[in-house]
Amino acid sequence: MSLSAEAIAQTAKAAFEASQLVSAAERTRALLEIRKELEANKDAILKANGEDMARAEAEAAAGRLASPLVKRLDLRTGEKWDTMLQGVTDIASLPDPTGTITYARALHDNLDLYRVSCPIGVLLVIFEARPEVIVNIAALALKSGNAAILKGGKESARTAAELARTIQSALARTALPEAFIQTVETRAEVTALLSQDQYIDLVIPRGSNALVREIQHSTRIAVMGHADGLCAIYLDESADREKAKRVVVDAKIDYPAACNAVETLLVHQSLLETIWPDVADALLVANVKLLCDEPSLTALTASSSSPTNRPIATLIKTHVFPAAPEAYKTEHLSLTLAVRTVPSLAAAIAHINEHGSHHTDCIVTESAVAGSTFVRGVDSAGVFVNASTRFADGFRYGFGAEVGISTGRIHARGPVGLEGLMTYKYVLKSQGEGGHIVGEFGREPGKKLYTHQPIEAELTF
Amino acid sequence: MSLSAEAIAQTAKAAFEASQLVSAAERTRALLEIRKELEANKDAILKANGEDMARAEAEAAAGRLASPLVKRLDLRTGEKWDTMLQGVTDIASLPDPTGTITYARALHDNLDLYRVSCPIGVLLVIFEARPEVIVNIAALALKSGNAAILKGGKESARTAAELARTIQSALARTALPEAFIQTVETRAEVTALLSQDQYIDLVIPRGSNALVREIQHSTRIAVMGHADGLCAIYLDESADREKAKRVVVDAKIDYPAACNAVETLLVHQSLLETIWPDVADALLVANVKLLCDEPSLTALTASSSSPTNRPIATLIKTHVFPAAPEAYKTEHLSLTLAVRTVPSLAAAIAHINEHGSHHTDCIVTESAVAGSTFVRGVDSAGVFVNASTRFADGFRYGFGAEVGISTGRIHARGPVGLEGLMTYKYVLKSQGEGGHIVGEFGREPGKKLYTHQPIEAELTF
After folding, report:
1. Which helix (H) or strand (E) holds B285?
2. Domains, chain B, ranges and CATH?
3. ipTM for the predicted complex
4. Band of the pLDDT at B1, cuts 50, 70, 90?
5. In terms of pTM, does the model score above 0.90?
6. Would you tell me which residues 151-180 of chain B have a C-beta closer than 8 angstroms to some C-beta of chain A?
């Protein structure tokens, strides 16, 4: 018997509210119970995973599913199973993100105000393919105190169902409501859940640009995540040759399908005959296809006909093409890079703000002033100086866990860790005689004045 | 010649981007220029205000406009003009909310990550009636570095136009683009602007519940604010009689039309014959109408027939009525209070989470455990112990300025000051030889490991 979307959402909210009196220690214990239960159910889970794999392989053989997707389903080979278990332990050992006091003031004698971090409420998380994400998200939700409704990809349905059952049995041994983590299986359920803004507080889509954009356009609930990752690197007038080569090549080839891979290279015009041919060499040798504007293309052609016998000479015909205007608006997600010549730092900043996706952008420069101007002027979640855009990642930033990367400016921006799953509440405690009332405050004689003294945060919450 | 909504929004975004290189000091100077220009234009502004007033008075006389609204338009009497000017100076003197570092880690030697506060982008602020709000919001936008598009009430159109012209002339004497603050005059423009999610980052409606709800339902842009303010006070088993009386009466009568006035009183059943009649007395004497559930009503009737001759005896017929179920879902905004008896603290928490608007709720108790349970269990922006709900206010909290009060859980919650108008960006600075690339990091021998050492925040931004 399956519940209606409204019942699922309402149950999740009730579970969230009931969980407010459960301690953080108990939530952490629930994570360890989940790990234990996963170990106990390993055979059943991997058997289900085998069935998903067999079906996916048949679909792939029939040309109805892309092969890389099949590989992403696999929980049985390599270190994937152990990594999944380790992830649960890692999240369990992170500091408790609830109860952190971020503002504390005495409004007057015996009247203390605290701003305390607390979970947001009910999360709806939608993802594709990789079945271990269900465990990862359940762990993040438990650690942060948010109830969650999870929907995985249909290709991993059997594995996901087995994982969900495992999580439920583990939760049954804790003080948390079992409905704290729920899963749904169909696209129709997700569509219905997206209209439950009365109960669901945040939607986190993790998947293709198309998935994210569709969800952003079909709900009134706040959506956290990113569609495009259109990152740029600007080679400033004062760029160092080696830094330019290393940073651009790494940002492009380290993992071209990632959202933080570079898609656009902006080259200051003064570098066309100096650094640019070297950077292009390094990219071409790494099998990168270059879509160039007219000046950068001309510079390469000129350079390739020089007697120094650059690799360019042989690769230019197969790997270098004129850029169409769309090239600068396209997330290639492959070994393709759009190149554009700019007359100034200001033009680079303007290009990025207009064409980019406000994800992560980088300047290669030896000038502190140019670096600082770029950092201020570029309106993106990440603004880097002489470092690869690939550093934009919650683990690399030191968050210990990553929910996703947000290109929104509201709530959380950039890589999102547990902190991004928190909100806060204001706690006002009166310990005065007769309680505190605003009628006693004012500018008139005999009235009290607000003191707003910073206080030591000592609230046990 | 008036611009299209798209052109207005696009111009605002361009002004925002251009302003990123303008210093905070220059933005503060702009505030002082605005104050100067307001003083210089005082006569013209107050003349326009007189015209708005005359028209509004005629509308009111014809029964087409509520009289309190006419009063709210007035900039000419009392201290309103001076208060408006002082508000600009006060906001100018607040600390700069931009450039605050909230996370700083060395990812490795010479690779430093900073999370730095910065403005969100373009705000669309919609408000009603009081024309001085335009100056207040313009000042908040300038201080926080956000570009703003403002729309006031049609009743104050002449005053608003004059104030907007004044702000523009002041901005023309600064390094900021004049389009940093724009105003629009028609409802149709607002409707068109609500679909400009490409350029507008945050909508802040300040006005009636109907206005806020309509806007929340007609845009994909994030909306910050609140519709209902359905605040409750719970009198716990261990409540102190005097605290109960003082806090409840203040929360109800101090300013009944405010969103933080109490609308529901929950009484623990053990208090029905002890504290409750005294609290009711105090409310009735203050001319409050009580909508009571059966037990609280019976208790009052019994109490009124006792020989102690309480004021209840005379007021009960005119001021006490049985509560319909809707009473607990209604924001009365008047001297009316819904009263319900609850069997336990848990029932009080459940009532508030289900019926309330997650704005501000209070417990009156002498028990630290009950206070802490209430604070954890009630899922509201403000959770108070023995203090009037009327304290929920940015100025009272010590923020210096208030944008509004948010009942959302995403981004900002509760009273919102300048901090609620900020987002952040991650700045990653490499000062290493050859820049930094992720390809050099990993677990393999010879690769670098992330260190994530906390560092002193020394970024000049």
Report:
1. helix B275-285
2. 5-97+124-223 (3.40.605.10), 231-398 (3.40.309.10)
3. 0.92
4. very low
5. yes
6. none
